[in-house]
Amino acid sequence: MTPAKILLFGEYTVLVGSQAFAIPYADFSCRISRSDTGFASQNPLSDFVSYLLSHPQQYAFLDLERLRDDHQHGLTIISDIPVQYGVGSSGAVTAEIYRQYVKRQDKPLHQVKAELAAMERFMHGNSSGIDPLVCLYQKPLIFRHEGTIQIINHPIASPCHVFLIDTQVKAPTRDYVLRFLEDYQHNKPFILKIQQLTALVNECTDAFLSSSPQFTDMIKKLSQLQLNLFPFLFPPKIIDHLRDGLEKDLFYAKLCGSGGGGFVLAFTTNLDAAQQYFTSKQIPMREVRLTPKDDSMGWG
Question: What predicted TM-score, i.e. pTM, was given to this entire model?
Fold first, then answer.
């Protein structure tokens, strides 16, 4: 079983050099299975596997012969990870395929990350490799801006509560990632704003991991900047509630993944008040636990 993931900090900015901090999220998971009913074109795994098999040189690190044989005998995905929700449904599938079919497992983290990114690009057009790497290792990972990757093997002393807000809207990652990269290449005012956001992401990551008392002020600034910079990435039916929480200092919301729908990530020092707020608005939310669940499924 491979868990979902949550990128606490670093969405988009990690593509241009910021830090990132991600955790596995074992409330959702996936696994691949042979159905033994033969190949089915409607199998959601079919296009991805066919793509891998059609590029044997690029994916030579996988046992493609065994993958082809299993695919022809009804390889399928069993998953309860919401698709287009920002919690790594494609990253988990990528990690699960990699885990089952990689030829060698004794590789440096950076090499594994690069191979996973090469696979996941089929789904998003571009990939940092972070999502599938977190899903694969099932441990919280810190990606430093100088290029180092750190695995966290101890509980996180969070400076506040973390929860997910369900927008009940699906959103495709690929289009938003491509739009971001296009704007970052050609839009100078946008580039300056992203540089400001990148610095704030780095500060929030460090403050969160050190449980700094300054974290609340930093995440408030990050929430405000994202809501102003990316209003189109928050569904219209929920963005006013996110601004309301910000203005009342009730909670601070930010993107969870690429945005546009799915889950929105939020932080609060008063979880009961936040729960009462969303209950009154009939908007589903769920707390994100930052303590280990069990050894087999990482953290969730």
Answer: 0.89
By the 10 Å C-beta count (0-12 exposed, 13-18 middle, 19+ buried), 283 is classed as middle
Percent of the chain with pLDDT over 90: 72
pLDDT value of position 292: 52
275 shares a domain with 176: yes
Let me know the angle formed at the C-alpha of 223 by 116 and 178, rounded to the nearest 5 degrees. 40
Alpha carbon of residue 149 to chain centroid: 16
Which of 151, 172, 202 is the last residue in one of the domains? Answer: 151
194 pLDDT higher than 90: yes
User: Does residue 294 lie within any of the structural domains?
Assistant: no
Which residues, in sequence order, are CB contacts of 12 under 8 Å at separation 6+?
Answer: 177, 180, 194, 197, 255, 258
Among 38-42, 56-60, 120-124, name the one with the lowest average pLDDT.
Answer: 38-42
Which residue, chain included where needed, has tokens 């089929």?
122
Domain assignment of residue 269, given as a range: 161-287
CATH, residue 146: 3.30.230.10
**299 pLDDT above the threshold of 50:** no
Round to whole Å and give the CA distance between 243 and 227.
Answer: 8
Outline where 16-108 has alpha helix (H): 46-53, 64-72, 89-101
